[in-house]
Description:
The structure holds 2 protein chains of 2 kinds.
Chain A: H1 2-25, H2 30-56, H3 66-86, H4 93-99, H5 103-106, H6 112-117, H7 125-143, H8 149-175, H9 186-193, H10 206-213, H11 223-229, H12 244-261
Chain B: E1 3-16, H1 23-28, E2 31-45, E3 50-55, H2 61-69, E4 76-81, H3 90-94, E5 97-101, H4 113-123, H5 128-142, H6 157-169, E6 175-179, H7 187-203, E7 207-212, H8 215-221, E8 224-229, E9 232-238, H9 239-244, E10 249-256, E11 270-274, E12 278-284, H10 290-298, E13 302-308, H11 312-323
Parallel strand pairs in B: 3-7, 3-8, 5-6, 6-7
Antiparallel strand pairs in B: 1-2, 1-4, 8-9, 10-12, 10-13, 11-12
Amino acid sequence: xxxxxxALRKSAGIALLATRMxxxxxxxxxxxxxxxxxxxxxxxxxxxxxxxxxxSASDGIHGWTLAEWAALTGFTTVARALWNTVFFGxxxxxxxxxxxxxxxxxxxxxxxxxxxxxxxxDTDVWIEIAVGTGMLAVALHVSGAELSGxxxxxxxxxxxxxxxxxxxxxxxxxxxxxxLRQDAMLSMLIWRLDTFAQLPMSFYPTWLMTxxxxxxxxxxxxxxxxxxxxxxxxxPFVWLLPLAGPLLFLPAVLLWRSGIDRYSSxxx
Amino acid sequence: xxxxxxxxxxxxxxxxxxETGGRLARLLRRVSGEVEALRGVDLRVDEGEAVGYIGLNxxxxxxxxxxxxxxxxxxxxxxxxDGRDPHKERRRLSAxxxxxxxxxxxxxxxxxxxxxxxxxRRVYDIEPALFRRRHDRLVDRLGIGRHLGTPVRELSxxxxxxxxxxxxxxxxxxxxxxDEPTIGLDIFAREAICDVLRDLRQDTAPTLLMASHDLRDVxxxxxxxxxxxxxxxxxxxxxxxxxxxxxxxxxLVIHHAxxxxxxxxxxxxxxxxxxxxxxxxxxxxxxxxxxxxxxLFADPQVDDVQIEAPSLETVIKGLYLEGA
Lengths: 268, 324
């Protein structure tokens, strides 16, 4: 027990230090980081403009107003940025498996997954967090949602849980590369699919809603938590939603462990 | 630490496009096959020994290194480090292992070098004062002080390898596995690395297994050579003994004025390569007539006389050709 606690303390220390250093490394090339953030801002604004146009033509789509949709988008953007802050390195797993770069992590006296998780921070998380938080705050104000005490407590818990759902999905998909060595593009596929989480599930046909609530649980990333934040449900079960992250992350870690046991590196 | 490989075989499963069939089939279908990297390797490396591991590309050097590091498991046979299975006890072993594969970056790619070292200090739980002493000494010896604030990805190959070696040695490993540590480096970087490794052998004497193409490095650092070819060991012994495999053959190289006619060599010596200013004779060690050298040195038309032993490269090339 004492050994486990010491190992956890050591891992937490390394994780904190690595994250701090990764953020500090952004300052080595501020121009590069600035450009990446401008790019992310343009992408966010253009995406928002298209949906604003679509929604402004009517009072809303599938019962969602523009402000409610903006709150959902802001929420998922912040959750995704939190994932990018800690778990961004998992996107490199397929490449590491294929090229044998994983080797050097296996010869360190530390958990290799932890070393990957904290190996890098996406350069544009700054703008994603700023835009997402701003969008969420303005949209909640405009939508008239009641920001009660419980809702204010729920938002950060749900954000942490949603970041872990993103992490679980990406880790599970990238861990498949231990079996499907040629399919390094899997991580990019799920990366592109992330945008599905930014739309209300009622936009999708029933079968896709079912998929997004089970196999690929995008609904847990933003839709379900936002139902409560926007006052569309008062079910007490919503307080279980932040647990979806840890519950999904656990099997993803088990899949990773199973994959690493069969890792065969390369001959060179 | 002691390293022991007993009858080790290791195969890799590979999938490739079929060579026959239509275009679509070749695009979509994959055929599986096996490539045998090691075919019954027996190797024992004792505590504090330094072994140069020589082989051509694809001979099985890196596979052996990874088996010893616990990254891979053998298909059959047994690998132990201090009597334990390195794969099963990888985490415990890694605290005492230094593994450097020069073709791969092990430091954090986007971080400045000094930040990578600080992370390694935490990973290996090195006491700060001890870390500072080792860090300063290694950084000074390898001459990378100016680059400590530079992100790893921006370093030249030579500086990156020096930085990687510092990172590999900071925790004073008892087992050092170096996979081509000097490949592609200029003479200064190579010398710096060889100097540090030589000193390290004298100071802490870790067990060292160094895979290399470059025999100069192996000669500078190791006292034993193991040669692998096609997944099988073809030589295992002292460097001097390997040299003796050249058969004690010597070459007499005489530099002289253009077109100068030399006195005929007596005995079993035979003519070697010849140009208008250089004449060579090949003879068995100890069979050169004593008076001949005096005669050559007294000849005003002779500029220089050298006796050359066969290089290790020549001897090892001979081993590969024998194997083929």
